[in-house]
Amino acid sequence: MADLLRLENVSKVYSHGIINAHSTIALRNFSLTLKEDEPTILTVAGESGSGKTTLAMLLLGFITASAGQIIYRGKNIASLHGAEKMAYRREVQAVFQDPFAVFNPFYTVDHLLTVPIKRFGLAKSKADARNKMEEALTAVGLRPEDILGRFPHQLSGGQRQRINVARALLLKPRLLIADEPVSMVDASLRATILETLRNLQRDHGVSVIYITHDLTTAYHIAKSIIVLYRGSVMEAGDVDRVIKEPQHPYTQLLVDSIPWPNLDQRWGAQPIKAREVGGNTDGCRFRTRCPMAMEICKQDPPLFRIDERHAASCFLYEKRPEIAKAQLSELLPV
Amino acid sequence: MNTILVQDPARPVEAVRLRAVGDGGPILRVNNLEVTYYTDSGRAKALDDVSFTLNSGEKLGMVGESGSGKSTLALAMMRMIKAPGRIEGGSVVVGGGDLMTLDAESMRKARLSRIAYIPQGAMNSLNPVTRIGAQMVDAVKSHLPREGRAAIEARCKRALQSVDLDPGVYRMYAHELSGGMKQRVCIAIGILLDPHVIIADEPTSALDVVTQRQVMETIDNVQKAINAAVILIGHDMGLMAQFVDKVAVMYAGRLVEVSTVREMFTDPKHPYSQALISSLPSLGNKGVFQGIPGLAPSLLRLPSGCAFHPRCASAMPHCTTIRPEPQVLPGGRRVTCHLYDGEA
C-alpha cells in the first residue's frame, strides 16, 4: 500500500541573529503517514505559536525542513523537479486562513481562478474555463454572476474564502491543506465550507489536513486529531476520545475553553496561566503553564498509549506503555 | 487634577458626572436607526428601522450573517459611517443625550468618553510606529486637555492593568505583543474614559480558543468594574451563550428578534433564529452540518415582503407580499415575523 505522504522526524528551527544566534524550534521530531488509498481528514490543533502553520508551510514546500524528510508519493519533496514538481504543486493544494491577504487588490477575483487554469492547462477553451470557474463557485455556494468580474474589496470575507476553496476544488487535488479555513468566516457559512471539505474527502478521495485552533469544528469534521503545543505533539488519537476525554492537561485547557453554545455548559473556572514569551526549551513545553507540573517534567515526555486509539505525551501517564513518535500514525483512525 | 485621581482612582470625576445623567431607565436607546449606502448599482438599505434599548451593566449580543448590517450598526452608533453610506434617520440616546444631534466636535468628544468602539482586527488598529503608551495618551489628551502628564500616564497604566497587561506594555510597540495582547490593548483604550456603552465588534474572531476565553473574561471584568453596557457583535453563538444576557438577531438590515439569551437558546421564535440555533455544533450531533439553506440576500435586491421568506421553512403566502413589522410578544420578546401576528 503506497503512502501518499510520509513525514519522518521532521523538525523546523528558525534562527535569527549572527553572533548570539537565537533559535526557535517551531516543530520537533514530527512524524506522520497518510495512506494513498484511505483518504482521511486529520486535524492538527493548537493555539497560535504551536507550529501548525509551520507544518502547513513545510507540506506545501514553501520552507524546507531543518531535519528529517517529507516524502510525497515515494519522492522527497525537496528533490522534486520539472514535471514531478508541477504535479506535486497541483495535487497538494492549500486554503489559507486570511481571505484578505491572498488576493491581489489590482486584479479582479477571476485572476485567482484563471491563473491556475492556464498554468496547469485545465481548460480547452475560454468557454470551458468559464464553465469550470462557474461550476467551482457554485459548488461552494456562490452565485458566479455576483463574483466574477468583481474586485476583492467588493466582496465579504466569507465570499473570498469560498473563492479560495473553489480554486482548490478546480485543481482536483489529492491532498488539501486547510490552514484555519473557517476562522474568519460566518458561523452559518462554516457549515457550508466544512461540508465542502468533507465532500472532497468522501466523494473525490482527497485527504484533508485541517489545521485549526477550533476544536468544535475539528470534532465535527475530522476522524483523528493531533494536538500540538510549541512544536511538540501533546496528544493524538481518535477525535471522539481526545475531545470527550482529554488526557493531557493542555488538551484539557483547550477543551475547557471551547465556547459551547449551551447555557448549561459553562467555560471552565480554571484560571489560565499566561504564556511566557520565550518559555522553556527543554522538557515538556507545557510545564510552565501546567497546573500538574512535576519534577520529572523537566525531561522530555515520550508518548504514552492511553488506549488503542489515543496517546498523550505526559508523565501523568508514565505507567502506560510507551510508543515511539514515529508510530503515531498507527493510532489514528482513517 | 492629580488630587482628584488620588481621591477616587477607580471612578474619575468626569465619568461620575456623565453617568449621573443616565440614572433611571436604559442607558442606551436606539430608535428607528436607518442607514443607506448609495452605491453605483443602487441604494442598499443596510439598517432598516433598528430600535432597541440597553441598561447599564447589560450585555447584548448582536448576531447575523456577514452583510446583515451588524458592523454598520456599530459604525452608525459611533457616527463613523463613511460615504457612500448615510445615516438617514433615527436617534442614538446615550445617558440622556442624542448622539445624532451633536455637532462634529461634540461627537468627537462623545466617542470614547460616552460610547467606545473596540474594532474587529486588533492587529491592524494599532499604530506600528508609535509606542502603545503614546497612542493611549493621545486618546486621553484630546478628551481631558487639562489633565497633567503624570495623571494621564497613571490612568493609562491603570487601564492596562485592568485588562491583565503588565504596565510595561505602555513602553512597547505593537509588534512586540501577541494577538491577544493587542486585542487587550484595544480594550484598555476603549475603557480609558469609563464609557457608558462599549461596542465590541468581533473582538476575538482571529484569536485561538484559549486567548479568546482570556479576552472575553477581560471584557467581562472591566465591564462589571465600570458598569457599562456592552454590545458584542459576532456570529459565534457559542461565545454568545457564554457571555451575553440578551441576543438580538439581525437579518438583511432589520432586527428580527430580541430575546434573553435563555429564551433564544431554548425557544427561538423567528424561523431564522430557529435555523441559527439548530445549525449549532454540539457534542451530541457529530458530523451533522445543518447549514441554513439558501444565501443571504443582496441588500440591493431584497426579496419582497419578508426578506427571509425565500429561505424560510414556515413561509406563508402573505410573507411574500406583506412586510412584517416588529411586535412585542407577551413576556417582552420582540419578533418581526407574521407567524406571531395574532399573539401581540
From TrEMBL, chain A:
Residues annotated as domain ABC transporter: 5-255
Gene3D superfamilies: P-loop containing nucleotide triphosphate hydrolases
Membrane topology per record: Peripheral membrane protein
GO cellular component, one term: plasma membrane
Family: Belongs to the ABC transporter superfamily.
Protein name: Peptide/nickel transport system ATP-binding protein
Pfam families: ABC_tran, oligo_HPY
Location in the cell: Cell inner membrane
CDD domains assigned: ABC_NikE_OppD_transporters
Gene Ontology BP, a term: peptide transport
Keyword match Nucleotidyltransferase: no
Keywords: ATP-binding, Nucleotide-binding, Transport
GO MF annotation: an example: ATP binding
Organism: Kaistia soli DSM 19436
UniProtKB/TrEMBL annotation, chain B:
A GO term for molecular function: ATP hydrolysis activity
One annotated GO biological process: peptide transport
Main localization (coarse): membrane
Localization, UniProt: Cell inner membrane
GO cellular component assignments: plasma membrane
Xref: Pfam families: ABC_tran, oligo_HPY
UniProtKB keywords: ATP-binding, Nucleotide-binding, Transport
Topology relative to the membrane: Peripheral membrane protein
Domain ABC transporter: 28-277
Entry superkingdom: Bacteria
UniProt-listed CDD domains: ABC_NikE_OppD_transporters (cd03257)
Protein family according to the UniProt entry: Belongs to the ABC transporter superfamily.
Protein name: Peptide/nickel transport system ATP-binding protein
Species assigned in the record: Kaistia soli DSM 19436
